[in-house]
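User: Quick sanity check before I run a bigger batch. Here is a single chain. Can you write out its predicted 3D structure?
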Amino acid sequence: MTGGDAARQGGARVLVEGVTKRFGTRVTALDDVSLRVGAGEFVLLTGPSGSGKSTLLNLIAGFDRPDSGRILVGEQSVGELRDPARFRRETIGFVFQLHHLMAGLTAEENVEVPLIPSVSRRSERLGRARAALHDVDLDGRLTHRPGQLSGGERQRVALARALVGHPKLLLADEPTGALDSAASTEVLGLLAALSRRSGTTVLLVSHELDAARHVDRVVTMRDGTIVGEEAGGAGASAIPATAPGPAA
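Assistant: Done. Predicted structure follows.
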């Protein structure tokens, strides 16, 4: 087994089968959606606002349940979880458009927070937090608070926080939506590099035109359905420009 193949064993496969999700009687957010994501694969979900991308991430994370169909993350059936919070804590990392850092904590303290329920020794928590910040090139910002960091740096702290627990699946919902083009490219590059290094499976929602070249596969959604797929990488076609608007 090659190093790359070994790394990919650390990720969780994701299986979405025939999933439908309605809100009320008039809004069908997802309509019979099926998707397979291999362990360690980096997949981009794109499409116009309102196409169901963020709803799909929320269902995969167990924040909500589908009206029909099933979702597996690894060997776990998300709709049948007895303790969804524990599942999320032990299996999934999250990065959102807004960093949601605690203003009164330093970078290393923000990254430490997710480890508190499971790691009793603070020295170990801080050691892991510093290692995660090293992975996103923020060794020189360990004791800086969010207000002392640039937008790109804050989002890199959020990425370190999402990965410090070594999740098998990372869900990233418009993580570059509030960044300028240079910071966006930097964060997307880090996501791709960290995914390859750790083998973490990544599902990325983005409208960024540049995002397709960083991923293994591009899945396009529209009106609650998957309407197309193509390989990612340097040869991938640009994402059609759409106004980000509210998360779908």
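The radius of gyration is 18 Å.

User: Great, the batch can go ahead then.
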